[in-house]
Design a protein that fits this description.
This protein is mostly helical. 46% of the residues lie in helices and 6% in strands. It is built from 18 helices and six strands.
C-alpha cells in the first residue's frame, strides 16, 4: 500500500461458507457478507489497539487506518466444488469472492465513516480514492475499458464463466453500494483487504489450503505426538468425487488407491499367504502387519529391524554382507518382480495421487491437480501460468497485494522465470514470489 504502513490481518475460511454434507450446496453468500462486515468492524477497532515496529509505521497506519481482511482455503473450496484450479470457472469464482469481500468491506468502511469520520488523510486523497473505487467497480462489472488513470488494464471479472451468477450480482451490488456511500460519507479506511499467506493460522482455521493457493499434495503425512505418522487425504477430495457423480463404493476405492490399505491382506501380487510360502512365520507376519500400517514404502517394513537379522540370514538365506548393503531389497531377493513390488507398494502404502486411480474419468483429472506432482507416480501439476492467471483474476478486487507462492519445477530456466515476471507485470499483479 504505502511505505511505512502496516495492517492487522484476518482471513475468512471460504469452506466454512459451503456445506460439505450437501453435494448440491451453494456458497452461503449471506453469511459471507455478514462475516465480512463483522471483521471489517473488528479490524477497524483494532487499529488503535495495535502495536507497530516503529513510530513512523504507527503514525501512518493510524492516519490511513489500513486493514488486512482476506480469505483462505480457495484451493480447497474449488476442489470441493469439482472445479479445476486452472480453469476459467475457478478464476471467475475466486475473483467474485474477492470482489464481494472488498466491495462489502469498503461499503462497511463508509458506514463507519458516517458515524466516526473518515481516515485522517482522506480529504487530501478524496478524488484519487473515489477514482480507485470506480476502477474497482468497473472491474466488478466486467468492463474491459474506461479505467481512469491506468496505463495498463486489469483483468475484469469474467461473468461469462461464473459458476454462480448470484455471487456476481451480489458483488456488483456491493461495489455500487461502496461507491454510493463513499461519495456521501467518505471512507474510514484507505485499505481494507489483502490476501495473506495464512501458512500458520490456516492450520488453526482448519483450512485444507492456504490463501489463494491450490493444494500442494493430495495426501499428507501427519506426525503423531506419541511417535509415528499417519496418512490423510485432502478432506475435500471425497466431497469433490461425490459432486462429480461417483458413488460411495467408487469413492472408497479411489481413496484407498491414494492412501493405501495399510496392509498386504488382499493384495494380488504380494500378500501374507504368498509370504508364508516363502518361509515367513506367524511372528514375522505379525511384525509386518504392525509395521505396514504406517509405512511410507513397504521396503521400510521388509528389513532386519522388523523381521530380525537371524530370521533373514538363517531362514531366508540372505548373506549377511548383502543384508548390510544400503540398497538391499529383500522382496527382490525373494524373487518378486519390480512390477509386483510396485503393485504391492501402491496397494499397501497408496499412490498418493489420483492419477490412474480406478473409476476416475480423464475429464476429472484436472480437479485434483496440485502445485507439485503427487506421490511416486504422479506426473501432473499446475503450470506456472495457472498460478499467475489466478492471481491476476483476483488482484483487481483486493486493496493491497496477494501473498502467494508461484511454484516452478526445479528444471525451470532463467528465461522461464523472466517470462513469469513479465506475465505478472502485464496482468497488473502487485507481487510475484517464485518458488523454484
Amino acid at each position: 500500500f504505502l511505505d511505512d504502513t502496516a495492517c492487522n490481518l484476518a482471513s475468512l475460511n471460504l469452506a466454512a461458507f459451503y456445506d460439505l454434507n450437501d453435494v448440491n450446496a451453494d456458497f452461503q453468500h449471506e453469511s459471507y457478507i455478514h462475516a465480512v462486515r463483522l471483521w471489517t468492524l473488528a479490524l477497524e477497532i483494532s487499529v488503535t489497539m495495535a502495536q507497530f515496529p516503529s513510530k513512523e509505521i504507527a503514525q501512518l497506519s493510524y492516519e490511513f487506518r489500513t486493514l488486512g481482511l482476506g480469505y483462505a482455503n480457495l484451493g480447497g473450496l474449488l476442489m470441493a466444488m469439482g472445479l479445476p484450479y486452472d480453469s476459467p470457472e475457478a478464476r471467475s469464482l475466486g475473483a467474485t469472492l474477492a470482489a464481494l469481500m472488498t466491495g462489502i468491506s469498503y461499503a462497511t468502511s463508509a458506514e463507519i465513516a458516517a458515524e466516526q469520520g473518515t481516515f485522517k488523510k482522506y480529504d487530501l486523497n478524496k478524488n484519487d480514492m473515489l477514482r480507485v473505487i470506480r476502477n474497482h467497480k468497473r472491474a466488478a462489472d466486467g468492463e474491459a475499458s474506461g479505467y481512469e488513470g491506468l496505463s495498463m488494464i486489469p483483468v475484469p471479472l469474467d461473468v461469462t464463466h461464473t459458476p454462480s451468477p448470484t455471487l456476481v450480482r451480489e458483488a456488483q451490488k456491493a461495489w455500487d453500494k461502496a461507491y454510493t456511500l463513499g461519495q456521501k460519507h467518505g471512507y474510514r479506511n484507505a485499505q481494507t483487504t489483502v490476501i495473506a499467506p495464512t501458512g500458520t493460522i490456516g492450520l488453526v482455521m482448519d483450512c485444507d489450503t492456504t490463501g489463494v493457493e491450490p493444494d500442494f499434495a493430495i495426501v499428507k503425512f501427519k506426525k503423531l505426538a506419541g511417535g509415528g505418522y499417519f496418512k490423510i487425504i485432502n478432506r475435500m477430495v471425497p466431497h469433490a468425487l461425490k459432486c462429480l457423480g461417483y458413488d460411495a463404493t467408487q469413492v472408497d476405492d479411489i481413496i484407498k488407491y491414494a492412501v493405501g490399505h495399510g496392509t498386504l491382506e488382499g493384495c494380488k501380487s504380494i500378500n501374507f499367504d504368498v509370504l508364508r510360502a516363502k518361509g515367513f512365520g506367524d511372528s514375522q507376519i505379525t511384525s509386518l502387519r504392525e509395521a505396514l500400517k504406517s509405512a511410507f514404502d513397504i521396503k521400510f517394513a521388509f528389513n532386519k529391524w522388523t523381521l530380525g537379522e537371524e530370521f533373514l540370514t538363517r531362514e531366508l538365506g540372505v548373506p549377511k554382507m548383502q543384508l548390510e548393503h544400503l540398497n538391499f531389497d529383500l522382496l527382490n531377493f525373494l524373487g518378486f518382480t519390480r512390477s509386483e513390488i510396485d503393485d504391492a507398494n501402491t496397494y499397501c502404502c497408496g499412490a498418493m495421487t489420483l492419477e490412474n486411480a480406478p473409476h476416475i474419468k480423464p475429464a476429472h483429472a484436472a480437479v485434483f491437480d496440485c502445485a507439485s506432482p503427487c506421490g511416486r507416480i504422479g506426473k501432473r501439476f499446475l503450470s506456472t501460468q495457472s498460478h499467475i492467471l489466478m492471481m491476476a483474476a483476483i488482484q483487481p478486487f483486493i486493496s493491497g497485494a496477494i501473498s502467494k507462492t508461484i511454484n516452478m519445477p526445479n528444471l525451470a530456466s532463467v528465461e522461464e522465470c523472466k517470462d513469469a515476471y513479465l506475465l505478472s507485470w502485464k496482468l497488473c499483479l502487485k507481487s510475484n514470489a517464485l518458488y523454484r
